[in-house]
């Protein structure tokens, strides 16, 4: 079962890596945009589920694991929560396009709360261990979780603000799959040192400006429509 889940995890990872970019090139709301978007989303859900299973399996059955291996399993569980939370947020803002502030759906508050709690716990654990990756990388989750809760609490300032939130959620979710490839795939293909912490932050450094670019672009469009 462990090998089977690894196989599914790898297949879902490559699928997500490919389909992450496709919706950007199709007309928003069109058939191909939705199809490629759903393939990416379900791939990310599969990655999240298999990551949690594989990490818990290692924690529960590997009696000889080191502290570094245990902390890495904990970190992968956080990455799974990050992926699930961002993808779910990207979907939920579409479902509640007419959101007008003080959103009352408990599920949409639970998801960012789970992300915030897990990110904080992993970050604190990282500082205790003196591990830079565990200490600083979860701050991304803290920032995103707070921004999600603020969106559900406040009334949208833009008529189609949900477009920006959807884009932010999905591209933030993409950070997880690109990070996984850069850290686990690139070292094997190009002979890089996978322990280099810059590898973990490189996708964030690249994708965050992309998120900002599209957010500003659609914000200008929304303001013209008002």
From TrEMBL:
Keywords: Membrane, Transmembrane, Transmembrane helix
Superkingdom of the source species: Bacteria
Bilayer-spanning residue ranges: 6-26, 38-60, 72-94, 106-128, 134-151, 163-185, 197-216
Protein name as catalogued: DUF2306 domain-containing protein
Species the sequence originates in: Oceanobacillus locisalsi
């Amino acid at each position: 079962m462990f090998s089977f889940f690894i196989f599914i995890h790898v297949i879902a990872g490559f699928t997500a890596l490919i389909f992450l970019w496709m919706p950007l090139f199709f007309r928003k709301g069109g058939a191909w945009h939705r199809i490629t978007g759903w393939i990416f989303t379900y791939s990310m859900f599969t990655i999240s589920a298999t990551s949690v299973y594989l990490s818990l399996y290692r924690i529960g059955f590997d009696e000889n694991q080191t502290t570094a291996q245990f902390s890495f399993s904990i970190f992968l569980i956080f990455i799974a929560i990050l992926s699930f939370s961002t993808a779910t947020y990207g979907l939920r803002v579409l479902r509640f396009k007419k959101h007008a502030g003080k959103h009352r759906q408990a599920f949409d508050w639970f998801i960012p709360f789970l992300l915030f709690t897990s990110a904080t716990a992993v970050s604190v654990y990282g500082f205790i261990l003196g591990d830079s990756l565990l200490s600083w990388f979860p701050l991304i989750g803290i920032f995103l979780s707070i921004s999600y809760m603020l969106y559900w609490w406040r009334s949208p300032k833009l008529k189609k603000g949900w477009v920006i939130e959807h884009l932010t959620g999905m591209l933030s979710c993409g950070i997880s799959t690109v990070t996984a490839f850069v850290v686990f795939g690139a070292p094997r293909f190009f002979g890089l040192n996978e322990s280099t912490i810059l590898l973990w932050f490189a996708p964030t450094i690249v994708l965050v400006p992309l998120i900002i670019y599209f957010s500003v672009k659609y914000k200008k469009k929304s303001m013209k429509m008002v």
